Amino acid sequence: MKYLEEFREPQKARALLREIARLAGRIDTCHRRPLQLMEVCGGHTHAMFRYGLEALLPDTVEFVHGPGCPVCVLPMGRVDDCVALAERTEVIFTTFGDAMRVPGSKKSLLQAKADGADVRMVYSPLDALGIARRHPDRQVVFFGLGFETTMPGTALTILQAHKEGIANFSLFCNHITIVPTIKAILDSPELTLDGFLGPGHVSMVTGTQPYQFIARRYRKPVVVTGFEPLDILQGTWMLMKQLAAGRCEVQNQYRRVVSTHGNAAALGAVQAVFELREFFEWRGLGSIDHSGVRIRSAYAAFDAERRFAVPNVRIADPTACQCGEVLKGAIRPWQCKLFGTACTPETPLGALMVSSEGACAAYHQYGYARSDRPAASPAAPVRAAT
Amino acid sequence: MTRTAAPSPLHPRPAAVLRDTRITLSHGSGGKAMHDLIENVFIAGFGNSVEAAAEDQARIPLAPLAALGDRLAFTTDSYVVEPLFFPGADIGRLAVNGTVNDLAVGGALPLFISCGVIIEEGLDVGVLRAVVASMRAAADEAGVKIVTGDTKVVPRGAADKLFLNTAGVGVIRRGLALSVAAARPGDAVLVNGPIGDHGVAVLNARGELALEAAVESDSRPLGALVAALLAVCPAVRSLRDATRGGVATVLNEFARAAGVGIYLDEAALPVRPAVRGVCELLGLDPLYLANEGKLVAVVPPESADRALAALRDHPYGEGAMIIGEVREAPPGRVVLKTEFGGERIVDMLVGEQLPRIC
After folding, report:
1. What ipTM did this prediction achieve?
2. Tally of domains in chain A
3. What does the angle CA A267 – CA A270 – CA A272 come to, to the nearest 5 degrees?
4. Less packed terminus of chain A by CB within 10 Å, N or C?
């Protein structure tokens, strides 16, 4: 297929893997543990598993799967708020499909739908606005979720609703922003990460500029990377070259999409509609300052949190849940006490088991290929000796 | 029964006429409207005789069946696909082929099927006629007869337009022992053509995505293809049609039941470019997409080439490929070797990827 196969050529992959292995040998001499690279974005995690890339890397390189899956890091209390909104008789609750199965403390949106709530899956916030136009007698709430990738689409939808004067449309805003979270991870005392694969789609909007602090203040290299297998291998290779040379810079592997300063139109829409919250709760990571956005007062009429009495209950993560440690790279997914026993993709307890982009769900679904990882049976995970 | 008696010359019974253009609750009431509907739409549409259909059951002589094999195969399936018509097929064709294929992959010769219909009040009679005509055409192609049926009408909102159920009876040829648990290490795994067409065709027909992918459902009767395969390769171990849940689900069923590992070769998986494109856009995996004319076969290694040739010789198997092999480990698991040489587990699907696909 055009524009796809050229990013999946096995020969080029093998050449990159040879280079990565060679560099790993050089870097390894000054490390007693495997190199730990974090891919921040859930899209990277998914692609790595889908193409079986992890198994192809040398044992001395390890990927830590970061917090970049917005469905995963959504706290249970916010899901409860969604359910409460959806269960109002006047509301048509619209959401992206992958949020349907996320468990709340009592039920998921899928279960609320089965219980009679009018929950509809949409592919774009503009589809939700269309539903609002067709049902002027109902209140249409859109569940806004995601990082800077989806934020401009939601912002433009609000601007459009404002322009058309659509009074029965509102947004339940759960948009989050990645930079404060990377910073929180970097500030964590048990941090062992050596470098970052920067998110591709988020950076398409934000540009590469916002990551400069990682290199300057924390002395860690960053390579903003695309999502095709060759992108990921090349991004990894660029990161390893920096590490081997003792450099820490922000590099851009995903130049065909990402620019230094981002997409001005998208950023403008985001800036017009949203402002930073003082703090936002992340599942598995707790409260992080300035990590979420809310609707500015100029567009308050479209804010579901202002329009409806949202319960806004905080539900603590299950105590045995070790998602936070997995996110920071302190333990590997299968080393969590709950992995594959109490916590599975069918009955997720922790954030990372919820969506297919979550590290634990990916491990559970796609299994492990390396001999040092628990083989096959998800029902009885074996602790790996890493 | 009264209808089979000789009509009185004074009161000749007129042929059933159906003037209504929409189905109302009276068409399911058991009274005259229902009889008119059944005679005019179903019995006439299926090409059955009114006399034979007057009984409450189809009556099938045993002796000719016994000549065909030594076991009856009996299966049932319901169809709730939305929309009713989509590129390449419709709910009627699906309902016939789906049940025919469930019989065929057991090594049975499909012979008779039933047709249960649940209609939502308000359905256009023309839609019903079109579905019945499509069922008839599919039955003729598959060589089966639709011999019994039932009609119910439910109030608006109690069902969505039209639901079908078909049960099917066939006779299993002597000497076959197809089983979900028969795969052994060394066996080859085959599929009879490109996967995922049906799932993408239905998804696209819903119009929600505004995609311009020209993909048609692969709904096909597989009886003749299976007969051709079994004729040259009676040692086939496992056969199953890969409908909901796709090829991945069938392979997981084989691996679990037989306690073997199944290794798939990503490079050998047949997927049309348009289907691959839709999957890339929407984050779907063709291995999990529904098919309505694709089967997965496990055959002993020495028969693999013969089986592949037999499939490819048939119009419904032209795109057949050997897609993988059976190994001892990991037991109960399906592993995909990616084009890079990486490996990943292909597990059972969690949750519903696409609702109401068949």
Report:
1. 0.75
2. 2
3. 110
4. N
